Structure formats: C-alpha cells, structure tokens
C-alpha cells in the first residue's frame, strides 16, 4: 500500500495494489509514515475500504477539520468500542459515531444540552452497549478534561446498537427501542408485580423481542 495523504496523527489515506483508496486507522501512524511512501504496518488497527470518491471526500473533510485534541480523544474512545465489539464498527458506523462525538464536544463548548428522551430505555434494554458508552465518555472526559454527560453515553449506545443490525439505520434503531419499551410495558401492566425485570428470564425475553423487532423492521 502507498500512503496518499496524512489526515491526522492516527489516520492515513492510502492506495492498495489495485488502485483502491482506503483509510488506515492506528495510533501515531503519521509519525512513522510519509505521503508517497509505502505504508509501514506497525500500529495498524483497522482498514476501511472506501466505496467511492464521495466517501473519500467525506472522510478527508471530517478528519482534517477536527481539532487534533478532539481527534485523539475520539480515536481512543472508538478504539475501546472496536476492541469490545470486533467487526461491528463498519465504515458507515465509524463516520456517524465520530461525527456525533465531534458535535457533542462542540455542543459542550457552547453549553448546549440535548436531552436524550430514551436514556432510561437504552440503559434498561441495552446495558452492555450503554456500559461501553459510559467507558467511552469517561475516556474522552479524562483525555480532554471535560464533562460530557450521561445522555451522551445513551447516544453512543444507539450507534453501537445500530452497528449490530444487518442494515444500519438510526431511525429504525430508535423506533425499535420505543417498540421494545411499549411491549415491555404491556407485559408488566398485564402481570402487575409478577415480572422481575432483574431476572435472567426477563433478560432472555428482552433479547428475544430485540431479535423479533429486527426481523419485523
């Protein structure tokens, strides 16, 4: 592979043997590579094959316009997700998640708070993704000395849930969470006091409904 362009400390635009452009992700790649030279394989974490020229321009614009401190912190956070969910962070999900975190930090600078109205549902029905979202938020907060709120962990969880669907679609993921909440409420109201939401049986029920909704939608 040949390095075409250094986008920031951790991302390079490269060209493979067949002339296809790709984005290479890895900590500190710019410090051991040069544009026009052969890519050195150390520290490569992930390679994204780009579909078309528009995808290339989207990546370039996103990565080049982000403050280096933001890019470093977000890179570390997304690396946590990539390690915890190998194979789930596709090119599309990566871009939307990276972009979301950039805007979350910009909103924080401007003291703009967006309420996550489905925070309880995400915490209840997707505890693994929410816990990972909290770890990512903690990582960014420590790296930048900021305080992204818990709501952002819920937003990240949406992206992680969406990443695991066959055809990622954020609106459909949010619809599925609302439907899951409504189905759970029907069951709990039909059998008042009899449903133990902390039990393994309830967790299995929720998992079944999650897959059911994926098939329906």
Describe this structure in words.
The chain has 217 residues and is α+β, with helices and mostly antiparallel strands. The chain has eight helices and four strands; from the N terminus they run E-E-E-E-H-H-H-H-H-H-H-H. A four-stranded antiparallel beta sheet has the order 1-2-3-4. Helix 4 crosses helix 5 (127-144) and helix 5 (127-144) crosses helix 6 (150-163). It is elongated and about 65 Å long. The mean pLDDT is 85.
Topology record:
Layout: E1 2-8, E2 11-15, E3 21-25, E4 46-49, H1 53-64, H2 68-84, H3 91-109, H4 119-125, H5 127-144, H6 150-163, H7 170-190, H8 200-216
Antiparallel strand pairs: 1-2, 2-3, 3-4
Helix pairs in contact: 2-3, 2-5, 3-6, 4-5, 5-6, 7-8
Descriptors for this entry?
217 residues, alpha+beta, four-stranded antiparallel sheet, 8 helices, 10% strand
Biggest sheet strand order reads 1-2-3-4
- Major β-sheet, in short? 4 strands, antiparallel
Number of strands: 4
* Amount of helix: 55-70%
Please work out how many helical segments DSSP would assign.
Answer: 8
Per DSSP, what share of the residues sits in E-state strands of 2 or more residues?
A: 5-15%
Kindly provide the radius of gyration, computed on alpha-carbon positions and rounded to a whole number of angstroms: 20 Å
Structural class: alpha+beta
In whole angstroms, the N-to-C terminal distance is: 40 Å
What is the residue-mean pLDDT, rounded to a whole number?
A: 85
Unreliable stretches, pLDDT < 50, 5 or more residues? none
